[in-house]
Amino acid sequence: MVQKKNMHIEAIGKNIVHCSIKVHKTLGPGLLESVYQKCLAYELEQLGHKVQCEVMLPIKYGPITLEEGYRVDMLIDDLVIVENKVSEAILPIHEAQLLTYLKMKKLSLGYLLNWNVPVMKQGIKRILNDYWPE
């Protein structure tokens, strides 16, 4: 079962990469993060993926839960997180943020997508959490 789920996660990842390249080739750099996010969601949904945008991520600290914690840009099939950026470069803090989100959601795979690049493949960063769901 774990191997089948891992294969599914990898297929989602390939679709995220493929669709982000397609969106970027069509739109180019220089737009708002929200535009890319909506277009990427559309492309992934066309492939049959469940896409949730701006998903609340509560923070649990001991006995308390902070419901207004953080928001994940995109959650694909409840298995992969996508964080969209429009910046000069993907910074270590962006990677740390995504890794924290993955740990909090107990997920293993996430993508940082920086849309502010000449060629999209330069703006794709795959982040792995060592937690693998069963």
Per-chain topology:
Elements: H1 2-27, H2 33-46, E1 51-61, E2 64-76, E3 80-85, H3 92-105, E4 109-114, E5 124-128
Parallel strand pairs: 3-4
Antiparallel strand pairs: 1-2, 2-3, 4-5
User: What is the N-to-C succession of helices and strands?
Assistant: HHEEEHEE
Give the helix tally.
3
Q: Quick one: overall form? A: globular
The whole-number mean of residue pLDDT values reads 92
Strands of the widest sheet, in order across it, are 1-2-3-4-5
Assigned CATH class: Alpha Beta
Q: State the major sheet.
A: 5 strands, mixed
Number of strands: 5
Domains, number: 1
Work out the helicity level. 40-55%
What's the N-to-C terminus distance?
A: 7 Å
The CATH architecture category equals Alpha-Beta Complex
* Content-based structural category: alpha+beta
Question: What percentage of the residues does DSSP assign to strands (E)?
Answer: 25-35%
> What is CATH's topology name?
tt1808, chain A
Radius of gyration: 15 Å
Low confidence ranges: none
Brief summary of the model shown:
This protein has 134 residues and is of the alpha+beta class. It is built from three helices and five strands.
Keywords:
alpha+beta; five-stranded mixed beta sheet; 3 helices; 31% strand; globular
Description of the structure:
The protein is an alpha+beta fold and 134 residues long. The chain has one domain (2-128): tt1808, chain A, CATH 3.90.1570. Helices cover 40% and strands 31% of the residues. A five-stranded mixed sheet has the order 1-2-3-4-5, sandwiched between helices. The longest helix has 26 residues, at 2-27. The protein is globular, with a radius of gyration of 15 Å. The model has no long low-confidence stretch (mean pLDDT 92).
